[in-house]
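hey so i finally got around to running the thing on that chain from the lab meeting. sorry it took forever, my laptop kept dying and i had to restart like 3 times. anyway pasting the input first so we r on the same page abt which one it is
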Amino acid sequence: LNLSKKLPFRRIKSSSNNSQKQYEQTVEKILQFIQNSDIFRQKFVIDSINFWDLIENDFITFFKSRFLELFPLISNTLDIFEKENFDLILCWDDSQFFERTILSLSKLHDIPSLQLQHGIMSHVNHENRIWFSLALRDIITDKYALYGNTTHKTSLDNGADKEKLVITGCPRYDELFNYPKSNKKNQILFLTSGIPNSYSYFNSVDMILHYEELVTAIFKKLHTFTDKNIVIKRHPSQDEIIDIKQIASEFLPNAKITSNANTYELISNSDVIISPPSTAVTEAIALDKPVLLIKY
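ok and heres what got predicted. didnt touch it at all, straight out
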């Protein structure tokens, strides 16, 4: 936001004349095709067992919802691309619905694109399986700016196109090495980054229970540090799949729980940081703070 105030940004509005009714009519035509065709019934088969009937209603509901969002997005984006001259498109992620749609359309207008790494990346080994990042296997931006050699190797290990990878460093961390040191003490910071939310494809009942038991055990131990102030920072996108507040109320009733506080300031003011794998761990190391890394 601070950077945006220094740049000549302006809001662009589309003047696409397509109506919602037109979109709905198009969606209905596609749905009729789906319902009258055997294509999906033939596709959703495993070991000769067809499960299309089990998911058909959910699929149609999802399809109607997302495509009624998709069509206006396509129409408005194409309208803007026709009227404006863009030298470059910057993005944090090219795997999500909104970004991927715009980036795909940008290729029709020969607009170059650059994706900026904004978090940690790694292989995930779980129950003797290696989970690869499908997003890295299918980068659609022209280039992907990476922090350094480690993330470059990880990207290649995940199947990324070598020609698209470029090491640029991470300017966002530059200020950390000159961040003012705090004299405040007696504070332990617990970060919930990395605890799965409802969108995680690693979720299962066992996995959720494991995380809940892990957090409970940590909070029980923190309860014994009676001379320390405990601060719990939830990730801004963290939902209530694990009720952090409820667990804290039982073992750490005086803990301060926040989700939008300045992470740099919280880390600087703490004696020790407890966290699952997260970019905040990198930030704590840059601020020369001891970290207890939660393994999962």
